[in-house]
Write a structure and sequence with these properties.
2 copies of one chain form a homodimer.
Chain A (H helix, E strand, L loop, with lengths): L1 E5 H12 L13 E7 L2 E7 L3 E8 L1 E4 L1 E6 H10 L4 E6 L5 E6 L2 E8 L16 E4 H9 L16 E7 L2 E7 L3 E7 L9 E6 H10 L7 E7 L2 E6 L2 E6 L18 E6 H13 L8 E7 L2 E8 L3 E8 L1 E4 L2 E6 H9 L5 E6 L6 E5 L5 E5 L6
Antiparallel strand pairs in A: 1-5, 1-7, 2-3, 2-6, 3-4, 4-17, 6-9, 7-8, 8-9, 10-15, 11-12, 11-14, 12-13, 13-26, 15-16, 16-17, 18-22, 18-24, 19-20, 19-23, 20-21, 24-25, 25-26
Helix pairs in contact in A: 1-2, 3-4, 5-6
Amino acid sequence: MKITCAKDKLNYAVQAVQKAVAAKTPLPILTGIYLAAHNNKVELQATDYEIGISCTIDAAVHEPGEIVLSGKYFQEMVRRMPGDIVNIESSKEDRTIKITAGMSQFNLLSLPAEEFPVLRRPVGDNLLSVKDEVMRDLIRKTIFACSTDEARPIFTGGLLEADENGIRLVATNTHRLALKKASLESNVDSPVKMIIPAKILNELARVLNYEEPMNVSVYWLKNQVMFAFDDIYIISRLIEGQFPDYNKVIPASFNTVVKVNTRDFLAAVERVSLLAREGEYNVIKFNFANQTITITSNNPDIGKAFETVPGEISGNDIEIAFNARYVTDILKNIDSDDLYFSLNTPLSPALIKPVDDENYTYIITPVRTN
Amino acid sequence: MKITCAKDKLNYAVQAVQKAVAAKTPLPILTGIYLAAHNNKVELQATDYEIGISCTIDAAVHEPGEIVLSGKYFQEMVRRMPGDIVNIESSKEDRTIKITAGMSQFNLLSLPAEEFPVLRRPVGDNLLSVKDEVMRDLIRKTIFACSTDEARPIFTGGLLEADENGIRLVATNTHRLALKKASLESNVDSPVKMIIPAKILNELARVLNYEEPMNVSVYWLKNQVMFAFDDIYIISRLIEGQFPDYNKVIPASFNTVVKVNTRDFLAAVERVSLLAREGEYNVIKFNFANQTITITSNNPDIGKAFETVPGEISGNDIEIAFNARYVTDILKNIDSDDLYFSLNTPLSPALIKPVDDENYTYIITPVRTN
């Protein structure tokens, strides 16, 4: 292989695939970045068998071929290379790859390219097409609610559904649940329902940061999903299992509905939670009465906190306790000025949603206190 | 105690003393911040017995008194308080302190103020007076060369000297030495010579970030030093012991003197050092010949790096090896466009200094290679 390419493009491609490079693995080949040069294109790939990322860029291909380089060193090297142009050339004599740019020359030992589990881009129609900003918003507003407990794998992923009603992403750790819906511009041939690991969705949201609007094509391949956009595709395993019926979790009616300013409420909850940090449940109490939300915490070793925030309260007065982090997590993701906090009893799930977005729902289970 | 003060000022004072709050200590009182309110001033103090910091701000003192609050919680609380004004009031009934701002109220348990080892600001003439930017520059350009090995305490501090020739700060870990000199505007009554812990000097440089120029007064109190400026003073223990005679370490003459562009040289050294990272000595090789500096590294597990940088070389050709980090550390601290790299033999110490600053000297010991 012998190629010449723009440093900026190479750096972009290396950064794009880099998150799929395995850090610790019994298979050394997975610590590498695979480069395949053909027809004036270079495709870079990395995979740790959980996630695989491919990125293709333009290059002058003087000699086609495939190589695998240490992901860790290649990435740092490309980032620091001088000038605008990088040359990469494999040696016929030994297993080294010569990388040159300006007055810099690196001879990196290569990994055996024939051992790399090359990702294949599937052919055929895509299942659905989503705007990048819609996909990013779905992910950002739900995936934080996932569990990190690997003992119950389905809760470590987000449920992606798409049908004639649009697209939905749902995440829950069983104590709280976030649901975000969006409409689709094109029809879905057959309904989609799959659980995608949180890690991969977060990575997708990170990479989807283009200035120009762009469509993300989603393909479903047995136990894998692929997201394709621009010159990148990301392949992920799916999580097997039955996701609970989230519609059953959403209460149909409420005894108390509170409207409150999102920013003021978040600031007050964050301050009160300073004194609730210790301990497993991180509990803070809310009292809704007299058009005022009173938020309190009590930590015998440190002290007490007490805040009031004005709110429009309709319905019954209620006192209820929540895990402080479960409340702040959702408040940070609400973009509208005001939110609705809807409640029934001190022991039944409550609902938080933005005033101006019917398509965003967050359910939170209270903590039982004495 | 009962006071009212501006939140911004209180936050400034808490942040200033915060680095002296002990994190882990068998003495709980040292985890606190001490507040003393008298004569419409509040003085905040914290100390871990290594370093003590005091900061005094204006306040409306309704009732004078002293209290001690948990440093960790008080700091976070003040930072997040709403509005512009904070009230602090101790309760006569119990050991709590009421802190209010806007609609926020915190009742923090207090620590026993009578147990706090209150810092006393010494009276008398100051030993010397240094401009803040001079002090910061002395610290920034030398203290990185200190050792972190507590087994040899004198090398974990910087030697501060002041006499009729001006002020000097020196730091060494025995493999490299950094010396920075500056002139003083006022005379020094008696020569100053003391070893100050690197941690405290770094903290001093961090706090000395005023927009207005300012003088730092330095006082010497038996085994302590105090730096006073604006409304802050920092007291530190001194390190006891005999600092080596650094003048003996600086070679009187050189066989080879090289002039090179600082930025280009740093970029090349950093790239070559990518492949030298593993292992204890982090070795990279330099060859000075034909008006060219050739920098190489060789890591059998990863590969080789090879860079050339043009330089003006006078004297003998020489090949020599250094710990890469010892070279990059100094290059990052040289502000001038070009530097001099002066050498004798592959086994004798070399000197690096900026072209435009006679008062900055860095000595580096080579690594023996085969």
